[in-house]
Design a protein that fits this description.
With 279 residues, the chain is of the alpha/beta class. Helices cover 31% and strands 27% of the residues.
Length: 279
């Protein structure tokens, strides 16, 4: 039996995501014993461009596709919705900000918490690095792309959370699934709406982004890529939580796997391609 080699390249640091990936990989390999999956770490930015260039079969995107990408034949397959939580130190007296206020903070128009009803302290603005899907999602909603003035530009969700925990005057943003259960931070409401699973799904919490598997409108997936593509809805419903990029050294496959906890996306709200696999 020929063994195909697939590698999962994560965009985050080891931790709960590693455990989820390993669990999913083991379950996938049990179903497909002729495919070997290894877990490693890297970024996720090249997936869509490689897909457009037809060097891979499935690309990853933790944001909506841009008009130019769709014009080149990229097609979205949404597998989950991720809320982006706005966080401060737990002692911060500010509890709510509008998207307009967030834009003013991140562009440097507002620099002191007193301008937002808080203490007379300078705001320490923390964000993600250029190319981050979380940053892209946040800046798309707040309309701050290419305008942000950051005190710290960090390369992982964990680093943002740690920075906010260590600075009483900091503000940052991170995936909702990553901030749950964290101590030392507070999740702000946005325009009076809490960042909860229910509000993310019903759309009332506006700072959110889709996780997509991106395919080509004129492309047909190979066997290993199709098997993994079909397996994803089972992983979502099994409450696995991780963003990843998948490459196959056999057929050169790249696939994004971005999940929030399965209950965030009830079966009836999943796209039809996912529902057909889960039925």
């Amino acid at each position: 039996m020929k063994i195909q080699q697939l590698s999962l390249f994560l965009e985050n640091k080891p931790g709960r995501l590693l455990e989820a990936c390993e669990a999913m990989s083991e379950a996938f390999m049990e179903k497909y014993p002729d495919i070997n999956v290894a877990v490693e770490y890297t970024g996720s930015g090249a997936g869509i461009e490689s897909l457009i260039q037809k060097s891979i079969e499935i690309g990853n995107s933790s944001r909506e596709l841009k008009a130019g990408e769709k014009e080149k034949g990229a097609v979205e397959n949404v597998v989950a919705i991720d809320g982006i939580a706005v966080i401060t130190d737990k002692a911060n007296t500010v509890t709510n900000l509008t998207t307009e206020q967030l834009a003013a903070v991140y562009t440097g128009e507002v620099r002191n918490w007193s301008e937002l009803g808080g203490k007379d302290e300078a705001i320490v603005v923390i964000g993600r690095e250029a190319g981050s899907g979380t940053r892209d999602g946040f800046e798309s909603i707040t309309k701050t792309a290419d305008k942000c003035v950051l005190a710290q530009e960090l390369t992982s969700t964990g680093a943002v959370i740690a920075a906010v925990q260590s600075s009483t005057n900091a503000i940052g943003y991170a995936s909702f699934a990553s901030v749950e259960g964290q101590t030392g931070i507070k999740v702000l409401t946005v325009a009076g709406v809490s960042c909860t699973a229910e509000n993310i799904v019903n759309g009332s919490y506006v700072i959110q982004r889709p996780f997509n598997l991106v395919t080509k409108s004129d492309g047909k997936l190979g066997g290993a890529a199709q098997a993994f593509f079909d397996y994803i809805p089972y992983a979502v419903l099994s409450a696995m939580t991780f963003p990843a990029i998948l490459y196959s050294t056999d057929s050169v496959i790249s696939a994004a796997v971005g999940f929030v906890i399965g209950s965030y996306i009830p079966l009836g709200m999943m796209p039809m391609w996912a529902q057909s696999v889960c039925d």
